[in-house]
UniProtKB/TrEMBL annotation:
Name of the molecule in the record: Endonuclease/exonuclease/phosphatase domain-containing protein
Keywords annotated in UniProt: Coiled coil
Organism listed in the record: Araneus ventricosus (Orbweaver spider)
Coiled-coil blocks: 148-175
Length: 245
């Protein structure tokens, strides 16, 4: 149980200022705010208590990856496992502290910082359908049975439908969670109002490419040229070699 009170007084006397308005909450973990507003023509302020039932949390884009084999090897090679002589509570606390420190050092040694994946979350039902789709696709490629092809098309349509519904639901929940108090609404509006930058023209062998189609062709020609074998022939040298032999 917790008692909430505004940071400023709610009742003002001739030579006094006190807080008379309180709130009691129990087992409530969501963010909240309580403010005293001097908006009434009296010696008593109104109090506004706001519970943020919908809010967003900022997630760090970096996480840790632990190599547990490395973790085990560190504990095996770096720690002395001789029996401890424990005769008092102090010895127990020292042993626990040492054990905890060894685990932390091993975890720190075997872990490294990595960026979180930006892949889109896929619902478990859709994942199961994708697995079924892949198995059905293999069966169709092997047997070429029209019934299997029909089932494959049905699963494909179902996956697209569920994926579309899931994306719409995520977008709806994201919009409903926007709040003016934490600035998420204004940041989202700023992103939506921002115009997408156009890709500048590309200079290729045939000149500048402006349209998407010509840009794609220019990139394809460039990649084809980069990954083609180099022409190492030299006619003058080859002719000299032929004369000798």
């Amino acid at each position: 149980m917790e008692i909430l009170a505004p940071p400023s007084p709610t009742r003002f006397g001739i030579n006094s200022a006190t807080i008379l308005d309180l709130a009691v909450i129990k087992d409530f973990v969501l963010p909240f705010s309580i403010i005293s507003h001097p908006e009434l023509y009296s010696d008593h302020n109104s109090v506004k208590l706001t519970f943020q039932l919908k809010f967003t949390t900022l997630h760090n884009s970096v996480t840790t990856h632990t190599d547990w084999t490395k973790f085990q090897n560190y504990l095996k090679n770096q720690i002395d496992y001789r029996h401890l002589k424990i005769n008092s509570n102090t010895n127990i606390e020292i042993a626990v502290e040492k054990f905890t420190k060894n685990l932390q050092n091993a975890h720190r040694f075997a872990s490294k910082m990595v960026k979180k994946s930006t892949a889109t979350y896929i619902h478990a039902n859709i994942k199961d359908l994708i697995k079924t789709r892949n198995k059905t696709k293999k069966a169709w490629q092997t047997l070429r049975n029209p019934l299997i092809k029909t089932e494959l098309n049905r699963i494909e349509k179902l996956i697209k439908k569920l994926d579309k519904n899931s994306r719409q639901k995520d977008q709806t929940e994201e919009l409903e969670a926007l709040n003016t108090e934490d600035g998420t609404l204004w940041r989202k509006a700023k992103i939506m109002r921002k115009k997408a930058q156009k890709i500048p023209a590309l200079l290729g062998e045939n000149g500048f490419a402006y349209s998407d189609c010509i840009k794609a062709e220019t990139i394809a020609l460039s990649l084809e040229k980069q990954f083609s074998l180099n022409d190492l022939s030299h006619r003058e040298t080859e002719n000299e070699v032929k004369k000798i032999y």
